[in-house]
Target: MULE transposase domain-containing protein
Amino acid sequence: MKGTSIIQLRSFRTKRKCGFVYHNKCVKSTWVANKYKAKIRLNPRIDLPSFRRKVMNENKFFLSKDQGYRAKRLALSMIHGSEEDQYNKINEHIHEVKRSNLGITVVMKMVDGYCDTSTNRPKFQRLYMCFTTMREGFLARCRPLFGLGGTFLKKSIRGMLLISVGIDPNNGFFPIAYAACEEQNKDSWAWFLNLLKEYLMIKRDYEWTLMSNKQKGIIKACEAVFPNFDHRFCVKHLQSNWSQAIFKGKALSNTLWAAVKATTIAQFICKMQEIAEIDLDAAKWLDEKGPNEWTRAHFRTLPKCDMLLNNICESFNSKILDAREEFILSMMESLRKYIMNRMQENRDRANASWITHIFCPKIMKRMKKNIKHAATMIPHKANDTLYEVACPCGDVYVVNVSKRTRGCSRNSGGICYLTQEALTQWDAPGTQEACATTIPNSLKTKKLGFPKERKNRVIVHCVRVKALKRVADAFKRLYDALENLTCSVPAKEPDLFQVFIIEKSVTTQSSQPSKGKRNSSVKRAQGTWNLP
Model:
């Protein structure tokens, strides 16, 4: 009615005669976002085609790809806040994390020399985070080896997540530190490694080993930060580069892996000669790579691990797929909660189902396998600490029990790999558990002259259940409950977070060549590239 807010209904038709309108112009992405916000909260990873089909099936109207994308993005912004808002709240998040976790190391870096003249705002570039108890847990019983990896972030600003992952006593991955940055290059990796070096208090870098996939800029950064480091490379990536260099075939691949798994230098030379007989260029290509980077025969024994693949980083990346698709603060929170839950699960297993075991389950499984293989070996005692172990294939190994070392004498033309595997030397890098030697155990304790109660003492502590409990117990005081940022800001500090008003840094992602480019390079090398 005119002059009022009342609407007068003059007529009402109960039956409609107009046709059904499938392409409805009144449909807006805002309406769709408000209606499906709760469902998207439960399933934020729903893909766009499934979301569109669900909306169209339930509402009987057409929803375009652009409308569906905008609706989902708007709903996520309603749930988590916009991407820009999260970047502007980084200081609040850092303050709350530091308040709840004393001693945490959080470093935020801005773009050097940048300041918006109109708004006087710096530009965000990198954020590094690691908890004190992660360092304490890693240094408590984990081996002096860690892997480095980088993975893409999925949101519009893109960027990379740099990670450092160690190995726990049960041969599982142990996250150490992570950082969000603009891209992978020498500068970003050097910045990350310098913080990691300070965080782990690494002074004698020659005692440490790292493994990587030869990411962009990582080799030069490692040489600058850790000049004496033992740097291993993932053999899977070595094989991929080997195949791209036109060295293909099952025979070559099998011989390559035999050379990789060789446990003595003599065996390694023998396998390299076999590769040269198949393809001389392939052997020359491998000779250009340092053998200490990819073959067990040349690995140092100090890390007590002969890992050939960078699976610790790959496994961790596979567990954080959902987190990588979130905004930066939501991602950091998801990573924190995942690590907290993983450590608690390991602690519960160690206190419950593993409490009756001396060693961790994966170590016990490997020990049983080695004991079975070593049943055919014959030990001969030379003195109180020196033994000569004869293998069925004719090989003879000299084992020094007090020094926990072994020697090898080749009585035959070849070396039996299973025999080498079953022997599980203390210092030999030819077994996954070089530190968990089972020589006295597998070769029958009484034959080697060890008392029965001492047969398990030769296994070092880094693979025992107690070691895993000690690593996990370091997380008891980690991750105190974090309050919502709206509730945790101290009332007496109103200007605490006005120091930085952050502007996001947008950069293009550096990545591996696309599949088309990789194929084109192979075709050119093969001479099969079709010119236009």
User: Anything to note?
Assistant: The radius of gyration is 30 Å. The chain has 23 helices and eleven strands. The longest strand covers residues 173-181.
